[in-house]
């Protein structure tokens, strides 16, 4: 999807709001609903966040764990990973040009502590994914990204976030170029499903 975002077509804010309204139906721990949504449409702010993302992505792409370098010896997975790596690089150079950037956030009074991080983030991530599915159903493309969080503090300052609000992702949102989507290559279910015991 990273290469299929239409950077030239504006996205109506009403359509984004419709998708976020769907997202608010997602579950949250103890029904706290501590989510908040930054919807970035201002070109200068998008460019600034895009630059943080690009800087972080440059370091990521040079690391041994970059998507394009994984499974290099596997004749099936290697080429897939190489395409993923190229799409990551493509988006990194264009993140600031995406018409809408959505940053799902979580307000955590007292700050993020140790312990059950899954429970904490489980109150935001289903809503963010629901946003992405709602966008897909309306002809919009999205991508789940987190690389800008390497510069989370800088992004928070730029966006004026309170100290107890944490960013969960950066979701570029644009109309998609084309509507035909094939299933992504994945490991077979039998390889990753465990019944009753590992």
Describe what this molecule looks like in 3D.
This protein is an alpha+beta fold. It has a single domain (2-192), classed as 3-Layer(aba) Sandwich (NADH Oxidase), CATH 3.40.109. Helices cover 39% and strands 13% of the residues. The protein has helices at 13-23, 43-62, 77-92, 117-121, 125-137, 152-159, 189-192; strands at 35-40, 100-107, 140-142, 165-167, 171-175. Strands 1, 2, 3, 4 and 5 form a 5-stranded antiparallel beta sheet that branches. α1 packs across α5 and α2 runs antiparallel to α6 (152-159). 26% of the residues are buried.
CATH class: Alpha Beta
CATH architecture: 3-Layer(aba) Sandwich
Strand content: 5-15%
Q: Report the major sheet.
A: 5 strands, antiparallel
Helical fraction: 25-40%
Count the beta strands: 5
Overall geometry comes to globular
Distance between the termini: 33 Å
In sequence order, what are the helices and strands, one letter per element? HEHHEHHEHEEH
- Helices, by number, come to 7
Q: So, the CATH homologous superfamily? A: NADH Oxidase
Structural class: alpha+beta
Count of individual domains:
1
Notable features of this structure?
198 residues; 5-stranded antiparallel β-sheet; single chain; 13% strand; NADH Oxidase; alpha+beta; 39% helix; 7 helices
Topology:
Blueprint: H1 13-23, E1 35-40, H2 43-62, H3 77-92, E2 100-107, H4 117-121, H5 125-137, E3 140-142, H6 152-159, E4 165-167, E5 171-175, H7 189-192
Antiparallel strand pairs: 1-2, 2-4, 2-5, 3-5
Helix pairs in contact: 1-5, 2-3, 2-6
Domain Nitroreductase: 8-169
Organism: Luedemannella flava
Pfam family, one: Nitroreductase
